[in-house]
Amino acid sequence: MYTFIRSFIIGFSGAMMPGSLLTYTVEKSLKIGPKAGPLVSLGHALLELVLVILLFIGVGQYLETPLAQMIIGFLGGAVLIFFGGSMIRDAAKGKLQIDMKSASAAKSGGIILGSMLVSASNPYFAVWWAAVGLGLMMEAYNLMGVAGVVLFYTGHILSDFSWYTLVSFIIGKTRKFINMKIYRIIIVVLGAVLIAFGAGFLVSSVKMLLGPVS
C-alpha cells in the first residue's frame, strides 16, 4: 500500500504542474466536454505502460544518454510547435466549433493517439521516467516483485486520471458560457503556450548539441 500511495502522490504532484499535456486536455475539453480527460489520461497511461515495460527490461539507461535527450528534444520541440501552430491557424481561420453536435462527432481514438504524441514529444517525460520513474519502479520491484511494479504503475496512472478528469469536467461544463470570440482567444493562447514549450525544448537541444561554452 505504501508503494501505491507514494506513487499516487508523486504522480499527482507532477500531473498538476502546467505543461503541454494539460494544455492539450484543456483544448480538447473545450471541444468535446468532460470525456476528454479520461481519454487523454488513457492515451497517456498506454504510453506509460510501454515505458514501464521497456524500463523493466533495461532500456532506461539509454534514455538517460545526452544523445537520446537531444533527439527527443528536437523531435518533441518540432511536434509541440506544430500542434501550437495548428491551433492558432484553426482559430484564425474560424475552423473551431464548440457546439455539442461537433463535440459528439469527435473521434475518441484521435484524442487518445494525440495525448500519446503530446506526452512522447515532451523530453522531460522521458527524462523523468528514465531517472525518477525507473528508480521508483525498481524499488517497488525489490520490495514486492512484479506486484510492486503493478502497484507503482496503478498509483501513478490513477493520479493522472484523477487530475485530468477533474480538469476536463470543470472546463467541459463551463464551456457553454464561452462565446466563440473568447474561445478563439483561449485557443490562440494555448497554441502560443505549446509553441513556447516547443521552442524551449529546441533551445535546450541546441545547447546540448553545441556543448558547454568555455
UniProtKB/TrEMBL annotation:
- Return the Pfam families for the record: LysE
Name the keywords, alphabetized: Cell membrane, Membrane, Transmembrane, Transmembrane helix
Compartment(s):
Cell membrane
| Membrane topology of the entry | Multi-pass membrane protein
- InterPro entries attached here? LeuE-type
Please list the GO biological process terms of this entry: amino acid transport
Q: Name one GO cellular component term.
A: plasma membrane
| Transmembrane stretches, start-end | 6-26, 38-61, 67-88, 109-131, 143-170, 182-203
Q: Is Nucleotide-binding given among the entry's keywords? A: no
Q: Does the keyword Chaperone apply?
A: no
Tell me what this protein is called: Threonine/homoserine/homoserine lactone efflux protein
